[in-house]
Design brief:
Elements (H helix, E strand, L loop, with lengths): L1 E7 L5 H14 E13 L15 H19 L7 E6 L2 H12 L3 E5 L7 H14 L3 E5 L2 H12 L2
Parallel strand pairs: 1-2, 1-4, 2-3, 4-5
Helix pairs in contact: 3-4
């Protein structure tokens, strides 16, 4: 059992959040601390820097609200979590927060072979190499569903 567990959550993927929260509650000690983290990009227009994107404060508030909703929706009633919404590079921010909080475990969910996989793979690789704690990477929902089907065929 872990005392301080961090979950990196994509606020746009509720299925991923549900699975990650379920796994975390199984791994967290009864008196342990659970931290939910979402990292967003504060950048504006990407290739078009002169095109203003959404204001960072507005984006942060939206992500915070979604993270709070996910926690209330999928966490058991006897559990609570501290929410962290940070702007910047996902890998660097997750590693930094894990060090700052003295986390025992950092939990990530793989996106598998989706179109965003190269970006996600880079984050998973960076965190796995640089994290000051253990890292657990859950398989994507698609892969997890396949594994469950194989397990049930015995």
């Amino acid at each position: 059992m872990y005392q301080k567990l961090i979950i990196a959550i994509d606020p746009e993927d509720h299925g991923e959040a549900k699975r990650a929260l379920a796994a975390a509650t199984d791994l967290l000690a009864e008196d342990g601390e659970l931290h939910l983290v979402s990292v967003y990009s504060p950048g504006g227009g990407g290739f078009f820097p002169h095109v203003a994107g959404e204001a960072p404060e507005k984006k942060e508030a939206e992500v915070q609200q979604t993270l709070d909703l996910l926690a209330r929706k999928y966490l058991p009633m006897n559990r609570d979590a501290r929410l962290h919404v940070v702007a910047g590079s996902a890998g660097e921010k997750l590693v930094g927060l894990a060090g700052q909080l003295h986390a025992d475990l950092l939990l990530l969910v793989s996106r598998g072979d989706s179109t965003l996989w190269p970006l996600r793979r880079a984050t998973v690789e960076y965190v796995s190499i640089h994290a000051p704690c253990r890292v657990l990477v859950l398989p994507s929902q698609k892969k997890a569903g396949r594994e469950e089907t194989l397990d049930n065929s015995d």
